[in-house]
Amino acid sequence: MILHVPFTYFPDPAGGTEIYLASLVEGLGQAGVPVAVAAPSEAANAQAYRHANTPVYRYPGAPALTRPQVWARQDPTSVASFASLVRQLKPKCVHFHGVTAAISDRHAAFLAQSGIPWLLTYHTPTVSCLRGSMMRMGQFECDGEMIERRCAACSLHSLGLPNWLAKTVANLPKSLSQLGAQAPGAMATVLGSRLRTSLFQQSASLMLKGAERVIAVCDWVYKVVERNGVDASKIVLSRQGLSHDTPVRPRHARAAGRTQLIFLGRADPVKGTATLLRALKLKPELDLDLDLYLVVQDASAETHFTHLRAITDGDARVRWHINQPRASVLAQLPLASAVLIPSQWMETGPLTVLEAQAAGVPVLGSDLGGIAELVRDGVDGWLVPAENTDAWAQALERLVQDPDQLAQMRLRVPKPRLSAAVVGDHLELYASLGLLDARAQASAPF
User: How far is residue 77's CA from residue 63's CA, in Å, rounded to a whole number?
Assistant: First the structure.
């Protein structure tokens, strides 16, 4: 059995990683591969249930972590409960889908001691980027190489320090950083930045280099993993794909009418929703409707949602939809003039692009990461500088004022990659590692 371990899982509010994984494990199960999902839980006790025919196990962690544990991404309570689960299930392999305190190098160390190999799929920049966005100083794409002083400065900048001060503090001797880590409150995060960065990067490096294989879901991730010392022979490029139940629409022109725009994604600053809403505010005269389908997963997401509502200030063009069933959201996509993806970080997909392509709808997205790998600017969508509110405002204006070009783009939207191809990649990978039984071997596409 192969045990897949994501950050969270259904029925909790799900993002792209969980949707991707649900489709993957279903496909693997249909191919005869015994699979299960194990995910951290905030509940005090272990839980077991089934989701879409897949066994799911939730293992508890500590209700609170110390500062060193947070910095090093180590939750000893979750390590113990994870170890107990692994002893019970006896998987052939563990496939991690994230790196957090509850999915850490300590969990991987237990597997190594037990002789169980592990794989790691790199889904988001948070695997190896302390800032979390892979945007250096929040301004441009980073090469992703983990360099302690540089990354410490970038992390401090994300906390609000000006560039010069962030770089000065990041260059303090390591001994002073260790002393600074003992300071009270937020001061420790600032003065101890080099220690914090060192612990974070040690965790990321152990997970990346210790994995039997690292699965990169787009080109830029492949390059980042390789730059951080993982041999190319251990990196597998397998792009994301849409689940089989996502309807792929025939290509057709949209009926003329009021411009209908859709945003879907997590309520998180990195998704760029605030930039989009500020751009819309600059163009009060535009005759359009904007439907925002937000996934609100936790308290910080609730706070950000409140912030977003304040930006719109009662704008009647904006409609909010929170934690809606995925099927009902996908049903709305073909009706849209365009799907908006204003991400402020390096997306690894995102699945939203593929969902838009399946619906035959052009994408207006940030010129970053996976979005720029999937959208052909001026052909089947438009790419916009991520943080440039004026540029987004102009792009929205162009959408409304040039419906003919939008209609032509709609006809050129490509069909997306499907999850069957992702499943095929994994069957081939698992077979190469000797993890498949005879039935699954017969299903593998090679």
Answer: 9
Torsion sign over Cα 106, 111, 115, 118: negative
Separation of alpha carbons 372 and 383, rounded Å: 7
- pLDDT confidence band for 246 (50 / 70 / 90): low
**Sequence-distant (≥ 6) Cβ neighbours of residue 56 within 8 angstroms:** 9, 10, 36, 37, 38, 39, 48, 49, 50
Q: In order of start, what are the domains of the chain with their CATH numbers?
A: 2-130+198-243+419-443 (3.40.50.2000), 259-412 (3.40.50.2000)
**Amino acid symbol at 368:** L
DSSP 29-50: HHTT--EEEEEEESSSS-EEEE
Closest alpha carbon to 303 in 274, 329, 327: 274
pLDDT value for 441: 61
Cis amide linkage into residue 350, ω under 30° from 0? yes
8-state DSSP, 287? -
- CA–CA separation, 36 vs 424, rounded Å? 18
- Burial (CB count within 10 angstroms: exposed 0-12, middle 13-18, buried 19+), residue 328: exposed
For the chain, what is the radius of gyration of the CA atoms?
A: 22
Residue 102 · residue 75 · CB < 8 Å: yes
Query: What's the CA gap between 291 and 409, in Å, rounded?
Result: 21
Q: Stretch 165-184: mean pLDDT, rounded?
A: 92
Token pair for residue 154? 């970038």
**Cβ contacts of 354 within 8 Å, gap of 6 or more:** 240, 241, 242, 246, 374, 416, 417
CA neighbor of 85 nearest in space, from 167, 3, 185, 175: 3
Which amino acid does the sequence have at 205? S
d(CA 175, CA 187): 16
Type of residue found at 213: R
- What local confidence, expressed as pLDDT, does residue 255 receive? 60
